[in-house]
Amino acid sequence: MKKLIFTLLILFSSLVASAAAFDSVFSKFKKIDGAEYVKVPGLLVRLSASKFTQVDSLPMDIKITGIRVLEVPKSAGSKFDKAIEDAGKNCELMLETTDNGEKAIIWVEPKGNKSYNKMIIYSADDRSLVELSGKFCPK
Q1: On the CB side of 15, how many CA atoms lie within 13 Å of its CA?
Q2: Which residues, 6+ apart, have CB-to-CB distance to 53 below 8 Å?
Q3: Which of 66, 69, 76, 123 has the smallest set of CB atoms within 10 Å of its CB?
């Protein structure tokens, strides 16, 4: 019984220590005036994502279990950009692109693993942040 309790304590403490990098961005900026925040329930995601995971042309195997979207007003501009930049340092950069002045960045988390728990997509023009939770394994 002591071994079980000890194991559970270690497991719980490791989960707390591995808090997602962008959680603070979502919790801080979803409360500001004019921000739009949506969290799609896991059941709906699993129902709709089952067809998406069967696409063979993608460069990774994807199993999505959760989606969060945050869009902030332009008034939050530089603070939001700074928070995104700081959170991105704790993730692995997958793609950064600028096309016709529109900037988009994609990170995966946790950093340095062979499979990832989250994919974060940021559009600087829209000031929107999308977090896909699940399992992402490069092929």
Answers
A1: 6
A2: 61, 62, 63, 64
A3: 123
Residue extents of the structural domains in the chain:
21-138
Sheet strands (E) in the chain: 36-40, 60-71, 92-99, 102-109, 116-123, 128-138
pLDDT-derived band of residue 54, with 50, 70 and 90 as boundaries? low
First-residue to last-residue Cα distance in the chain:
41
Structural contact between residues 114 and 92, judged by C-beta atoms closer than 8 angstroms: no
Q: Which residue has the tokens 């728990």?
A: 117
DSSP label at residue 110: S
Rounded distance between C-alpha atoms, residue 67 and residue 39, angstroms? 6
pTM above 0.70, yes or no: yes
